[in-house]
Design a protein that fits this description.
- By secondary structure, the protein is an alpha/beta fold.
- Helix content is 42%, strand content 14%.
- The chain has one domain: 3-Layer(aba) Sandwich (Uracil-DNA Glycosylase, subunit E), CATH 3.40.470.10.
- The chain is built from 9 helices and 6 strands, in the order ααββααβαβααββαα.
- Strands 1-3-2-4-6-5 form a 6-stranded mixed beta sheet.
- Helix 1 packs antiparallel against helix 5.
- The longest helix is centred in the middle third of the chain and has 18 residues.
- The chain is globular.
- Bound molecules: uracil.
- Uracil binds next to helix 4.
Length: 184
């Protein structure tokens, strides 16, 4: 399947209640040939309006810090665990994650990335479980690289604290940037 075909399925998905409240689904954005895939939790207010992941305050911080280390957002691919905005930006439920992640799995198979960057604990926990790893908590896993074998070859997983958590806790900016630097 191509990324466009997967995106089309996501945009017309009505498998879970989040589809009823969305303005639009947010399949993902960026370079389909990227070696690196960033995976956040779920769209927020602005992502739901614009249909593009990480365009709100957290996304702007991510874009700025990536640029500061020489990575352009257009060169990577960014998506989320849940493709529709949960009300009040709550965490997606287990059921919503279970119904939505076949799309993420399909995207990963198509992208066949060399590096997966889960942003935040929801994404980190999902990716670790998917690849048989034990999640020990965001602050412990931040910037710690794991290598796993997948159907598309060896992949590095580098979890990074979520930019929204950095906005809430500005003293964590250095650990955020240090973790991103593991990509270069
Ligand atoms: N937070 C996320 O996890 N994803 C987005 O797309 C925006 C904010």
């Amino acid at each position: 399947m191509t990324l466009d075909e997967i995106a089309k399925m996501i945009r017309s998905c009505d498998k879970c209640p989040l589809s009823k409240e969305r303005t639009q689904a947010v399949p993902g954005d960026g370079n389909p040939k990227s070696r690196v895939v960033f995976i956040g939790e779920a769209p927020g207010f602005w992502e739901d309006k614009e249909g593009i992941p990480f365009v709100g305050r957290g996304g702007k911080l991510l874009t700025k810090k990536l640029e500061s280390i020489g990575i352009l957002r257009k060169d990577v691919f960014i998506t989320n665990i849940a493709k529709c905005r949960p009300p009040d930006n709550r965490r997606p439920t287990k059921e919503e994650v279970a119904l939505c992640t076949p799309y993420l799995n399909a995207q990963l198979e198509t992208l066949a990335p060399e590096i997966i960057v889960p942003l935040g604990a929801t994404s980190g926990e999902f990716i670790f479980k998917k690849y048989g790893l034990t999640w020990t908590g965001m602050l412990k896993e931040n910037g710690v690289e794991k290598r796993i074998n997948t159907i598309f070859g060896e992949v590095k997983i580098i979890p990074v604290i979520h930019p929204a958590a950095v906005l809430r806790n500005p003293h964590r900016t250095d650990m955020f940037v240090d973790a991103l630097k593991k990509l270069i």
